[in-house]
Design goal:
Strand content: under 5%
Structural class: mainly alpha
Largest sheet: none
């Protein structure tokens, strides 16, 4: 059994346990404004990602790949730790959640080159709008 199958199975088990445990939390007045709504959302998202992982693992062709620990990977990891620390401890307290999260996403996506250069702004703004809508309008949770 390869690591893709193990990852999919382990994360599926964690998601099932997580969802099961959220039913132990008290219900609220509204399905999206209860103490179990956000943990349930996380559990369902983990289950979806686990299912995608298992589907990918079933289509995976075996290839032996040795891990690489070059300077590029170390630099990427160090940037992630440093940038996340700045975001949490400096950005959110001083400039607020929305602007700090936009800057965090914009700089992070640009640094890691996750999307094409012209997609960085729409992805960053779209993510912020989605966060804002889900938390403030659906779950009635005010952002910091």
């Amino acid at each position: 059994m390869n690591k893709e199958w193990m990852l999919g199975i382990c994360s599926m088990l964690v998601s099932v346990f997580f969802i099961w445990q959220t039913f132990q939390l008290p219900e609220g007045d509204h399905v999206l404004n209860s103490s179990r709504s956000f943990p349930m959302l996380l559990g369902v998202l983990l289950m979806i990602v686990s299912t995608i992982q298992l589907v990918k693992a079933s289509r995976y062709k075996k290839a032996v790949v040795s891990p690489s620990y070059g300077n590029g990977n170390i630099r990427r990891g160090a940037f992630y730790v440093l940038w996340t620390g700045i975001y949490i401890f400096v950005g959110i307290p001083f400039i607020g959640f929305i602007l700090a999260t936009f800057l965090y996403l914009f700089v992070g996506i640009t640094f890691y080159k996750e999307v094409r250069w012209y997609q960085v702004l729409p992805v960053s703004v779209g993510s912020i709008l989605l966060f804002y809508f889900v938390f403030t309008r659906l779950m009635y949770i005010q952002l910091p």
